[in-house]
Design goal:
This protein is mainly alpha-helical. Helix content is 69%, strand content 0%. The protein has one domain. Helix 1 packs parallel to helix 13, helix 2 packs parallel to helix 8 and helix 13 crosses helix 14.
Length: 370
């Protein structure tokens, strides 16, 4: 049965570690030099960010739903203080590093600073010509979610419409599918079966927030089920391992039929199916009957804790490691360079965590107490 107090789900640590691993290997194989085996991640690694979206949708909406469940008014001040101290300090630090030290950039061209400061980078992002720190696009999507979602909840609760809000979830989910169909007919009117040029496709389909709501919406739906439908959740949670198996089955289907970036099927149906598949994985991770829920791992907990710092800094680390170790005779495309890159990603993330994240989290606690 769902609780009304914040809860630590250790099963989600495993999923967060999985998500960052998928992202890391996918981005590594996009570099000019990489081990040949990493190319396998071309078809599945890019979905790691969708798993992050489902996790964020679940965790953030759970916090807000707890307040609603206790019949308390959502405190926007408290919510935004929490998000500010958790997200922005280390993000602004990495942005500063990118702009102050051009030599460590993974690519030459960098979008203008205002786009990073306003979280507008994911709109019109041409990753082919302005691909430096391009992975910040997903943070833009999440920041838009953090801004709008509590405001929507505040409106719904103030108008006594919250009980019917599931219709909004359904409408937004359907809207994403229909709107991507509309965009496809605009940008590819001559042949809707052709695979679009990926750099061109990412600008119009992959990066914009309005096309990437699927994962966040699935996460919100799981949180609503967990918090407001305890009887139904009690029945579903008995099938945690089965939910994980269903997720793996769907992801296997997606790998063969919906993982080709730039295709019509991926653009229209791939996004929601990927989100649903990862939604079943999240359901399994928070079900006491599953092995993920009951499996304790210090390694995945550590990686999950560092995942945000790793995500922000990993492309810089990849570039520096490859450039430095090639000078001592280690090939850029070797497995050793790959392993060293992963190790240094964790080490740098540890440094960022203890020097930036933890001090600001302590400051956040002080602000909230005041």
């Amino acid at each position: 049965m769902a609780t009304t107090t914040p809860q630590k789900f250790y099963g989600l640590d495993h999923l967060r570690a999985l998500a960052i691993l998928l992202v890391l290997v996918f981005h590594y194989q996009l570099k000019p030099f990489h081990p040949s085996w990493t190319k396998w991640f071309m078809q599945i690694g890019w979905t790691g960010v969708d798993l992050f979206f489902v996790l964020s949708g679940f965790l953030i909406s759970s916090q807000l739903f707890i307040e609603i469940k206790k019949e308390r008014r959502i405190s926007l001040k408290t919510f935004f203080i929490k998000r500010f101290f958790r997200i922005l300090p280390i993000y602004f630090f990495v942005v500063g590093v990118y702009f102050l030290f051009p030599l460590i950039r993974e690519k030459e061209a960098l979008p203008p600073l205002w786009k990073f400061l306003t979280f507008a980078q994911n709109f019109g992002l041409d990753a082919k010509h302005f691909g430096t720190f391009s992975h910040a696009w997903s943070l833009c999507v999440e920041e838009h979610f953090y801004l709008l979602f509590p405001l929507i909840l505040l409106f719904l609760t103030s108008k006594n419409l919250f009980a019917k809000s599931y219709w909004i979830l359904i409408a937004l989910f359907v809207f994403g599918i229909v709107f991507r169909m509309y965009l496809w007919n605009i940008y590819y009117p001559s042949d809707d079966a052709v695979n679009a040029s990926v750099p061109y496709w990412t600008v119009h389909f992959y990066y914009p927030t309005y096309n990437r709501l699927d994962g966040l919406l699935v996460g919100v739906a799981i949180a609503a089920l967990y918090q407001f439908l305890p009887k139904l959740w009690g029945k579903i949670s008995k099938f945690g391992n089965q939910s994980i198996i269903l997720s793996i089955s769907l992801l296997t289907l997606i790998y063969f039929y919906f993982s080709n970036m730039g295709s019509y099927s991926t653009s229209i149906w791939g996004f929601p199916l990927i989100s649903i598949a990862y939604g079943f994985l999240v359901l399994g991770a928070i079900s006491p009957s599953s092995f993920l829920y009951n499996w304790s791992s210090r390694i995945t907990t550590l990686i999950a804790t560092l995942s945000y710092a790793i995500y922000l800094s990993h492309k810089i680390i990849f570039h520096i490691v490859q450039e430095l170790f090639t000078k001592v005779g280690i090939a850029k495309d070797s497995n050793l360079t790959f392993v060293l890159s992963m190790i240094f990603c964790v080490l740098v993330a540890l440094l960022l965590h203890y020097s930036i994240e933890k001090p600001f989290m302590k400051m956040r606690a002080w602000f909230l107490k005041k």
